[in-house]
């Protein structure tokens, strides 16, 4: 045998580090302090910018995200989560800077299918803005991955589950920050 026990352990450790370094993990960055005890009549939610993401994925993620926020709003001091119907570029900047609002991005949607399985990945980032600030108070990055066997699920069902998980993860991150 050409490998010693110490060499085998070292190679296993290097492989573990290599594989763990390749997968993205959720990250939260705060740029200031957010007071979860402050009562807010409304928190506006800007539709997500979904770049190179299928419409049958991006739109349901956004809808599910807002539904979860509204279902859990009683955990927070937010009266309601309101979808901002206009495009962000069409909103009066002076009005927007006086509001408490969320915006976000979904990108990097990838489906790698083989004969028997599919690997799905997507990335998302959400920004929480407070009145009077031009930079977000909170930024949350969430990547989601799902691998499944075609014997256990269809691509359409797995895509829907991936979207629901992403919406839940994004909503959980926001609700945690807004919960007193």
Could you please describe the fold and organization of this structure?
The chain is α/β, with parallel strands linked by helices and 180 residues long. It is 35% helix and 31% strand. It is built from 4 helices and 7 strands. Strands 1, 2, 3, 4, 5, 6 and 7 form a 7-stranded mixed β-sheet that branches. Strand 6 and strand 7 form a beta hairpin. Helix 2 runs parallel beside helix 4 (155-178). The longest helix has 24 residues, at 155-178.
Concise summary:
The chain is elongated. It is built from four helices and seven strands; from the N terminus they run H-E-E-E-H-E-H-E-E-E-H.
> What does the main sheet amount to?
7 strands, mixed
Percent of residues in helical segments? 25-40%
* Overall average pLDDT: 86
Percentage of β-strand residues: 25-35%
The stretches of 5 or more residues where confidence is low (pLDDT under 50) are 1-22
Number of helices: 4
What is the total tally of β strands?
7
Instruction: Using the alpha-carbon principal axes, give the shape.
Output: elongated
Task: Give the distance, in angstroms, between the N- and C-terminal Cα atoms.
Answer: 60 Å
Structural class: alpha/beta
Gyration radius, in Å: 20 Å
Order of helices and strands: HEEEHEHEEEH
Record the SSE blueprint.
Layout: H1 5-22, E1 27-30, E2 40-45, E3 49-50, H2 55-71, E4 78-83, H3 93-96, E5 101-113, E6 117-129, E7 138-149, H4 155-178
Parallel strand pairs: 2-4, 2-5, 3-5
Antiparallel strand pairs: 1-7, 5-6, 6-7
